[in-house]
Amino acid sequence: MVSVTYFVVVPFERNEDGEFVMGKALEVRSADSARFKVRLLADSGKGGVAFSRTGDLDLGDFQEGEVLAALGELPERLETYLSR
Questions:
Q1: Cys bridge to 48: 5, 18, 38, 75, which one at CB 3.0-4.6 A?
Q2: How far apart are CA 9 and CA 24, in angstroms?
Q3: 26-66: pLDDT as tens digits
């Protein structure tokens, strides 16, 4: 069993119609790095969610994601975006 943890940042911003748009997910090296990048997004007027997922790489079996930080302007129902 090869267990691995991924740390991911998902940016959000509003389009010209005022609707939330999810940006491209970015994999980072650590939980601290993920939190830092989300803080940068929030400070720039956007929003972001940092989360981690741990699981067995060989089996492709992963646990539910753990939210590490959610800052800035974000949609009310994040799960709608993050479950895609």
A1: 38
A2: 9
A3: 999 999 999 999 999 999 999 999 999 999 877 878 888 89
**Token representation of residue 2:** 């090869």
Q: Which two tokens stand for residue 33?
A: 């790095």
10 in Cβ contact with 33 (< 8 Å): no
Q: DSSP string of 1-53?
A: --EEEEEEEEEEEE-TTS-EEE---EEESSHHHHHHHHHHHHHTT-EEEEEEE
Whole-prediction pTM:
0.85
